Amino acid sequence: MPSPPATEAGITSKGIVAAGSRKYERLVVRTHLVHIKEPLLEVLEQYVRPVIEPGDVVALSEKLVAISQGRVIHRSLVKPGLLAKFIVKGVRKYQNDVGFSDPAKMQVAIFRAGWWRMLAAAIVGSATRLAGRHGDFYRIAGNRVSEIDGFNPDTIRPFNEFAMLGPEDPVRDAQAIEDATGWPTLIMDSNNVNVEILGMSRGVTISAAEARLALLDNPIGQADNQTPIALIRRA
After folding, report:
1. Are both 108 and 159 inside the same structural domain?
2. pLDDT value, residue 3
3. One domain for residues 27 and 103
4. Residue 177: partners with Cβ closer than 8 Å, 6 or more residues away
5. Does residue 63 share a domain with residue 114?
6. Are residues 16 and 132 in the same domain?
7. Helix count (H) and strand count (E) of the chain?
8. CATH value at residue 183
9. At residue 72, what are phi and psi to the nearest 5 degrees?
10. I want to staple 170 with a disulfide (CB 3.0 to 4.6 A). Which of 71, 75, 198, 223 is the partner?
């Protein structure tokens, strides 16, 4: 039987989903508002240690990891240039996610990839999208541009005013957490449009594809949920 919701213990069940041939329950872990460069292991010990069970996989939001590593840029430091304002005109806009429709966020991507590479990505990506092929913009831009998050007005304050560059090294960072705690760990890039698994520690026993399906509805949320951690539990 699946575990009942446990809000009194700091976790809440987000239901059971099928991923491949198995079913998994997702339990989100509520935390305090983690501040920039706050030690991540201390946060995990405080909130995950009391509720984790053998066999659970710890799934961390890339935002949580990036914030703890100080990989953030405040909006006041970003002035969108002509290229950023030009590219966003062709960006697909989603009703429930800001994506790269914000020129300031696109400018951060230009900082990462360089002016000429982003221009090439915009031109080629637009052409191939008209031909029915998607994703070339991010493939050409490279430099982990797709992992940039932030400047989302629906995000909890004050992080609605920050862009996040993604974790330094998601595979290494996930393994470091497992080495320190013994918990199989993955880091995910999740929003209301898509979920990607950025890195997994060696102890994770499910495939990245199964983990993605288990988290595809973004159980941790996108606004002021304060649940940047999920436990994936075999149902």
Report:
1. yes
2. 40
3. no
4. 40, 41, 44, 58, 60, 183, 185, 201
5. no
6. no
7. 8, 9
8. 3.30.1330.100
9. -135, 155
10. 198
How distant, in Å, are the alpha carbons of 17, 73, 226 from that of 200?
Answer: 20, 26, 22
pTM score = 0.84
Instruction: Compute the distance between CA of residue 177 and CA of residue 111 in angstroms, rounded to an integer.
Output: 29
Report d(CA 156, CA 33) in Å as an integer: 9
SS3 131: coil
* d(C-alpha 182, C-alpha 1), whole Å: 25
CA 35 to CA 25: how far, in whole Å?
29
78 shares a domain with 42: no
Q: From the centroid of its chain, how far is CA 226?
A: 14
Task: Provide the domain count of the chain.
Answer: 2
Residues 79 and 192 in one domain: no
Residues 66 and 78 in one domain: no
Count Cα atoms within 13 angstroms, Cβ side, for 89: 5
Q: What is the pLDDT of residue 9?
A: 52
Is 177 or 132 the better-scoring residue by pLDDT? 177
Q: For residue 202, give its domain range.
A: 7-71+166-234
